[in-house]
Every structure is written in structure tokens, then in C-alpha cells.
Amino acid sequence: MDTVKSLLLASPLDKVDAKVLLQFICQRHLGWTKEQLISNDQAQLPPELIKDWLNIQELRKQGHPVAYLTQTKSFYNIELLVNEHVLIPRPETELLVEQAISFIDHAFTTHQYTSEHLFRLMDMGTGSGSIILSIAEHFKSTNVYQLIDFVATDLSENALDVAKLNASTLGITPIKFFKSNWFNDLSGLGLVDLIISNPPYIANDDHHLREGDLRFEPQLALTDNQDGLSAYRTLANQGRLFLHAGGAMMVEHGYLQKGPIHDIFDQNGFHQISSLKDLSGHPRVTIAR
């Protein structure tokens, strides 16, 4: 007899992965919650569910990411749709969200924003929309929400479709989406107060691109096919022309890239350049004015 208990015991998958995937299958077929998965762990499961389970188990054995198999990922304060067109949001990126929220909070204590003079935030290379949607969700219940102009860009039309669907699902309507290769198609946008980005920063010869989840994620969002720094050169060189005086750029990067990125910002006329460490103690986010 095939039950939740017997399937989990027989599964070759990591126990956490197996539980997440079986919960997903049981929810899809039977509408079960996590609690019902536990309380019904010895109930007979239908053949079509077992077939679906064996298929998804095999895909996971081949290395397909759990998030792509369930098409969902929790990030910061939201649940996101994710698929093969977007990066899977990772916990270290939450540092970028936290710092952007802090920057915006401070800006509203030192500047007077109105419906005619909005605070403009631009997320470049938005992917699933994880960063800007988390920020927008944070401010949605505050009195400054209507005074923030949310802008998100991506080169990938497929990624923008995912981000737009996530925005719609979350009820976050003010975001303006633009298909653009960095700043190339934003000439009429106007100036921005804060630019944030988690750009492709893995060098093309990095072995991690051929390991784990990265094998299945969009290479366009992972690597610049160069030294991992070309996106920062573009962001710094062109981004300064899009920033208000006193505006800032905030970027995520690899833990060994702090020095070169500080140099790039410095060479492009930025100042007050500083970096923040993630929970592992690695430099992860750099801010430049």
C-alpha cells in the first residue's frame, strides 16, 4: 500500500526535499495542507498521485531544483512564482532588500516627497521581481507607498512575464516594467533616487556554473560570459547619468568581488562607497553615492 509514510521511507531524496515535493504533489492532487500530510500519512494514495510523485522524484534525482519543480519560492516576506526563466531567489539577497528599505526610510525622513516629486526606485535585472516586490510589499501598508515610483527592468521578456505575474498575484500594481539591456532603452525615464541590482556576477570559467542548481538556471542571469564584473562597469558608468545628485546605487556581488567593485565605482565618480556582510560574514552588498 502506497502511503505518505511509505513513499518518504523509500525515497532516495534528501528528507527535506522529499517532504516538500510530496507535500506539493498531495496538495495538487488532494488539496492537502502540511498538517493533513502528517495526519493522513498512512492513508492509501491514488495511482495518479503515485505516478506524478515518481516523475517528480526522478527529476529531482537528476538535479532539477526543488523550486522549479514546485514553481514556488519563499523570499523575504512574499511567495513567488519561479521557473526556468528566472533565478531562484536566495537568502543572501535579502540583505539587499533590507538595505534598500533602510535607505528609503531614511530618504523620507530627510526629504519632502509629493505626488509631483516621487521617490524613484529602479531594480535592474529584476528576474522574478523578488527584490522590488519584497520592498513594495514592505511599504504597501504605509503612508509613503503612493509616493514611491517603482521601476523594474530586464532584458528577458520571459523573466518580465514572471515578474508581472508575481506583481499581479501579490496585488502590487504601481510597478512599471521595462524591457531593456541595462540602460539602453530607458532614455525617457528621467532621474532615479536609488538603483538596485543583483546582476550576473559569476565569471565564465567558474566551475560553480556546472554544479547544483546553477546548471538549470538561466545563464544570462548568472554570468556575463566574461570576468563577472562587466555588469558593474555598465551600472557604474551609465547609472551615474540616471541618478539624482545624492542618489545611490546598491548592488549584490560575489564574496570575493568587493575590492574590484569599489574600484569600479570610485573610477566612475561615486563616493561614500561601503560594503555590508551577509549572515556568513562575506561582503555581499556594496552601496555607492
Can you walk through the features of this model?
The chain is of the alpha/beta class and 289 residues long. The chain has two domains: 4-62; 86-288, Rossmann fold. 39% of the residues lie in helices and 18% in strands. The protein is built from eleven helices and nine strands. It has helices at residues 4-10, 15-30, 34-39, 47-61, 66-70, 94-110, 130-139, 157-170, 219-222, 230-239, 258-267, and strands at 72-75, 78-81, 119-124, 148-154, 176-179, 192-197, 243-252, 274-277, 283-288. β8 (274-277) and β9 (283-288) form a beta hairpin. The longest helix has 17 residues, at 94-110. The model has no long low-confidence stretch (mean pLDDT 96).
What's the rounded overall pLDDT mean?
96
Helix-strand category: alpha/beta
CATH architecture of the largest domain: 3-Layer(aba) Sandwich
Major β-sheet profile: 7 strands, mixed
Question: Strands, helices and their partners?
Answer:
Layout: H1 4-10, H2 15-30, H3 34-39, H4 47-61, H5 66-70, E1 72-75, E2 78-81, H6 94-110, E3 119-124, H7 130-139, E4 148-154, H8 157-170, E5 176-179, E6 192-197, H9 219-222, H10 230-239, E7 243-252, H11 258-267, E8 274-277, E9 283-288
Parallel strand pairs: 3-4, 3-6, 4-5, 6-7
Antiparallel strand pairs: 1-2, 7-9, 8-9
Question: What is the compact description of this entry?
Answer:
By secondary structure, the protein is of the alpha/beta class. It is built from eleven helices and nine strands. The chain has two domains: 4-62; 86-288, Vaccinia Virus protein VP39 (Rossmann fold), CATH 3.40.50.150.
